[in-house]
Amino acid sequence: MAQENWAFVCDADDLVPDTGACVLINNEQVAIFWESKTDTLFALSNYDPLGCANVISRGILGSLGDDLVIASPLYKQHFSLATGQCMEDAQYCLKTYQVRRIDGRVQLLLEENITR
What we know:
- The protein is an all-beta fold.
- The chain contains no helices and twelve strands.
- A hairpin with a 2-residue loop joins strand 11 (99-102) and strand 12 (105-109).
- It has strands at 6-11, 20-25, 28-35, 40-45, 47-48, 53-54, 60-64, 67-71, 78-80, 96-97, 99-102, 105-109.
């Protein structure tokens, strides 16, 4: 069994509730969100595949039915915070990352961290 490789990306105090932050890890931009109602962290690729720009961290958190989503600031498509799936067009899906908060620090899992 491989050892998990968690990387520190920011202090938990650096995150603003219900707002995104962008971190650069392994030359890839990752959008991190702290959803305050459930006190849950989410991490997704910052790259919007429809707008072809790194802007997801600037999107607006919300919900569609029971799904927590981020609305892209460009064309307003919604992506599930849990799965990265685009709610309007199933051909698009953002990479998701395992993220955790430990001792006031936010960490991303680097080894096998991509889910679809």
